[in-house]
Amino acid sequence: MKSGVPLGGIGAGKIEILPNGCWHGFTFLNNTESPTVAGLDKASGRATGIPGFHFALAVTKDAQRRAVLLQTEKIMDLPLAAGIQYDGIWPQARLQYDVGDPDVEIGLTAVSPVAPGDRKISALPAAVFRFRIANRGRKELRVSLMGIIRNMVGIDEISRLNRVEKDARSVSVVCSHSNPFPGDAQHGEYALTVPREGDVSWLGQWNMQTKNFVFGPELIRLTAFDLLRDEGRLPSSCESDPQRGGSAALGAALAVEKTIEPGSSTSIDFIFSWHFPHHHAGHIYEKHWRSAVSAGRHALRDRARIIRKSDKWLASLDGAGLPDWLKDALFNNLYVLSSTTWWDRKGNFAFYEAPVICPLMGTLDVRYYATVPFARMFPEFDKSELMLFAKAQRANGYIPHDLGRNRLDNPNDGTTHFYWKDLNAKFVLQIYRDALWLKDRTFLEKIYPAAKRALLWSLTTDSNGDHLPDNQGADQTYDVWEFFGTNSYTSSIFLASLLAFEKLAVMMKDRAMARLCRDWFEKGRTSFIEQLWNGKYFVAVCSGGETYPASIAGQLNGQWYAHLLNLGYLFPKEMVQSAVREITRLNGSDSPYGVTNSIFPDGKRDASNAHASGIWPGESYAVAALAIYEGYPEVGLEIAKKTWENMTAVQKNPWNQPDVVHAADGTFGFGDSYMRNMAIWAVAEALGSSRPKLCAALRKAYRGG
């Protein structure tokens, strides 16, 4: 795998625990758009881990001691685990280690502290590591488990400093900086904390670096490991001097020693926590915790509840009749809650579109797909982000594409020049979704004026009187794909938004708007059919009487959302079902990796641009859900399955997914940690629409179990 399960609270940053047992992908240093990573293995492309962050185990039996690093990635010539079985299903990663001793069984459950309905736990800037060690032999074992971290605080290595903090219940080693560069957003601290259970010892500071100007797995000094192997414990000491020169890497370590009788087992817990408040927007966690240690101690006190909530959440879909691969895909596609979110000190929430490649905040056309599960799991966040878009609305009623680049106060109209024709309709649909699902009258009353202005703006985009928007180029979510005139993707979403706003207007007793929406819907539907229906499906575009005859995956995207929100049929049922059959026949069978965006009637792939010839996993899941609604569950599940399995088998990157893959071979096209792929929950929603037992299980999952 090229990634690992991300561990960290909502908007707090994260670390990843890799299948090789190493740590990777740090973004807790206020560096979401530029994660701290190690190199990739050239042969496989997998992540190798960041040197200086390790777990190790020493076992003493019959007066003989043996120590191993709990990883399979080589560090100098130190002994390693013989193998690791890795089970990654966010918010947990479970690792079972083979340490080469049949008497010793050791496993790790690493947990991200995110739980629907618990905002404080979900804000924790921390990761919980619970090790369970069992003695399967006939003799007493003395075991020592150690965690090692390296000081990477601040952009200036000079004046980095480690320290040890103790209280009656815990011991922490802390990496900090005594003289940060002015305005350094990476100034803060992180800590490793253990409870005072067993014999706790520590080594607070030593230099890991062995060669000037070079630091890596072949040139590292793990003094703490040598002490653990030789003594079974650490000296409980800490130097107090900050780093004064270059070419140093300060390490810190904690060890916990316990005796395990034959046939017994024990748990040893570590908490990794952080606190980086020097960011222009800050983090909500600053309101709860003033330091990395205070956050770590809170996580330590609450660790049993955090793990229990996580287990309960993951068990919520058991027995609901879903195939294992789909349960795996549903939870693993929620990983972006730990890796792609921003929750600032004022309480504002937003998703990144793609934090490295496209760090735009909240991106409206993408969250339309992504927030299908999120709106129910974290309703206050969803409403908050939609209110930010309402506040950013332009004077003419246009809703911006996003809230800003790495900021929430500089809205961006779009990645291309023209006003986008799908944004306002998607805004209206998301508002109606939240009004329907969340039953929050106060929210509706606050946002209704913005929704009304947005809908009225959409009406102005009809320049030829056909009651449908007129596209002017790359002015919708497919932003390198130009459409002119009536486009089936944009217009189907617009028609769904008219039905949704009609419902909103009725709720608000705005009879004139309800009548207007109904009138536009009836006339727009007629135009849509007249211009785009070819007898089998709705073609991509009609402009000036000329059609773009391709079958596009999203031609009935608005119908998918209409089904999701119980708005009924946009077009005659027989037309919808015919179109769905053609989409799955043409687009769905073109590639073994998902639904290809555009296919011509003769089955030829549309190579006019990268979006047309590519696969969007999020759109593939929308097509899969639509097929299920229309009575083709086997077809829909097969589409969803092959789309997901591409992420695990070809991409090998389930916790850092792209938005676009190549239809030819399933390889990377565009995007990182992309939120759109949470749309796979729409597949479960579609299945649940006809399965009461599954519907009840989904409600349970949305509540966190």
Report on the biggest sheet: 8 strands, antiparallel
Percent helix range: 25-40%
* Radius of gyration, CA atoms, in whole angstroms: 27 Å
What is the spatial order of strands in the main beta sheet?
A: 6-7-8-9-16-13-12-11
Provide structural commentary.
The longest helix has 22 residues, at 511-532. A hairpin with a 5-residue loop joins strand 27 (660-662) and strand 28 (668-670). The chain contains 19 helices and 28 strands. The strands form seven sheets. The chain has an eight-stranded antiparallel sheet. Helix 8 packs antiparallel against helix 9, helix 11 runs antiparallel to helix 12 (511-532) and helix 16 (617-629) packs parallel to helix 18 (681-688). It is α+β, with helices and mostly antiparallel strands. 33% of the residues lie in helices and 22% in strands. The two termini are 29 Å apart.
What are the key terms here?
705 residues, 5-stranded antiparallel β-sheet, 28 strands, 33% helix, elongated
Write the layout of secondary structure elements.
Elements: E1 5-7, E2 15-17, E3 23-24, E4 54-61, E5 64-69, E6 83-89, E7 92-98, E8 104-111, H1 119-122, E9 126-135, E10 141-150, E11 160-166, E12 170-177, E13 189-195, E14 199-207, H2 223-231, E15 250-260, E16 265-275, H3 292-301, H4 303-315, H5 324-332, H6 336-339, E17 341-343, E18 349-354, E19 358-361, H7 364-377, H8 379-391, H9 423-438, H10 441-460, E20 471-473, E21 483-487, H11 488-507, H12 511-532, E22 541-543, E23 546-548, E24 551-552, H13 557-564, H14 573-587, E25 598-599, H15 610-613, E26 614-615, H16 617-629, H17 633-649, E27 660-662, E28 668-670, H18 681-688, H19 692-702
Antiparallel strand pairs: 1-2, 2-3, 4-5, 4-10, 6-7, 7-8, 8-9, 9-16, 10-15, 11-12, 12-13, 13-16, 14-15, 17-18, 18-19, 20-21, 21-22, 22-23, 24-25, 26-27, 27-28
Helix pairs in contact: 7-8, 7-9, 8-9, 8-10, 9-10, 9-11, 10-11, 11-12, 11-13, 13-16, 16-17, 16-18, 18-19
